[in-house]
């Protein structure tokens, strides 16, 4: 049973609910479950709710009268009723990645830190689904967790001045993909031919919080074929 988070009024019309400060799949699921609960409970008063790693920030149309003890009890009943339910998944996304040396700028460093071979790193990275825990830092930049423990590596001590758009990096517990050219300190291990951010689209970002993502490996030839075909379609 997940504890009720701490409730803080940030402003007259903004509440923040905070769980333990931990970045993990368990925390992510707790936040998603609580966000669903609070949106149902306060749906008449909510303008927007913003879930993060371990917080849910709620922006209100009007300040409701909240009885803390009653809210806690309703949360516990909500959890009990849904104990055997699977967490909802927004979408299933399958993302191709080319791990060729041309794109895997930090693979040597990752190999040195993890003591894994090139192929073992790729195999581990594509071996499981990931959840989009957060989208931020850059428009459409997904924070995907959790990496298998052997792939946990610190970010670069000195960030690069330029990381190309669609580069795939790992750092700490997570995978991140750069939606645009940007400075960055993630360990780059590959690149996807997909475009993550396009303002001409109705939904400009490829990833949304709650998506479940799997990766699969493609060759450099397949990567450039995809890019060429995409360019021809424009």
Indicate the topology.
Blueprint: E1 6-11, E2 14-18, H1 25-41, E3 46-51, E4 55-60, H2 68-81, E5 92-98, H3 107-114, H4 118-125, E6 130-135, E7 142-145, E8 160-163, E9 167-171, E10 174-177, E11 182-184, E12 187-191, E13 212-218, H5 220-233
Parallel strand pairs: 5-13
Antiparallel strand pairs: 1-2, 2-4, 3-4, 6-7, 6-13, 7-10, 8-11, 9-10, 9-12
Shape: elongated
| Spatial order of strands in the largest sheet | 5-13-6-7-10-9-12
Helix content: 25-40%
> What is the architecture of the largest domain at the second tier of CATH?
Beta Barrel
Helical run tally = 5
Structurally, how many domains make up the residues?
Answer: 2
What is the mean predicted local confidence, pLDDT? 90
Question: What is the third-level CATH name, the topology of the largest domain?
Answer: Cyclophilin
Strand content: 25-35%
- The count of β-strands is 13
Biggest pleated-sheet summary: 7 strands, mixed
H-E order: EEHEEHEHHEEEEEEEEH
Unreliable runs, pLDDT <50, ≥5 residues?
none
Gap between N and C termini: 51 Å
CATH class of the largest domain: Mainly Beta
For CATH, the homologous superfamily of the largest domain is named as Cyclophilin-like
Indicate the radius of gyration in whole angstroms: 20 Å
**Class by alpha and beta content:** alpha+beta
């Amino acid at each position: 049973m997940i504890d009720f988070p701490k409730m803080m009024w940030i402003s007259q019309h903004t509440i923040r609910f905070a769980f333990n400060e931990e970045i993990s799949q368990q925390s992510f699921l707790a936040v998603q479950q609580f966000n669903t609960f609070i949106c149902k409970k306060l749906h008449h008063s909510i303008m927007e709710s913003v879930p993060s790693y371990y917080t849910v920030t709620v922006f209100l149309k009007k300040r409701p009268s909240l009885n803390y003890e009653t809210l806690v009890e309703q949360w516990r009943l909500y959890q009990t009723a849904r104990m055997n339910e699977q967490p909802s998944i927004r979408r299933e996304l399958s993302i191709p990645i080319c791990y060729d040396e041309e794109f895997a700028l930090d693979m040597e460093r990752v190999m040195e830190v993890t003591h894994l071979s090139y192929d073992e790193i790729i195999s581990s990275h594509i071996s499981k689904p990931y959840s989009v825990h957060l989208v931020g830092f850059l428009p459409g930049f997904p924070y995907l967790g959790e990496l298998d423990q052997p792939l946990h590596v610190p970010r670069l001590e000195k960030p690069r001045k330029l990381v190309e758009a669609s580069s795939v990096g790992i750092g700490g517990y997570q995978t991140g993909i750069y939606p645009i050219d940007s400075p960055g300190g993630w360990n780059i291990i590959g690149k996807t031919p997909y475009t993550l951010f396009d303002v001409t689209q109705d939904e400009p970002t490829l990833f949304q919080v709650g998506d479940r993502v799997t990766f699969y490996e493609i060759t450099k030839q397949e990567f450039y074929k995809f890019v060429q075909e995409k360019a021809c379609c424009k």
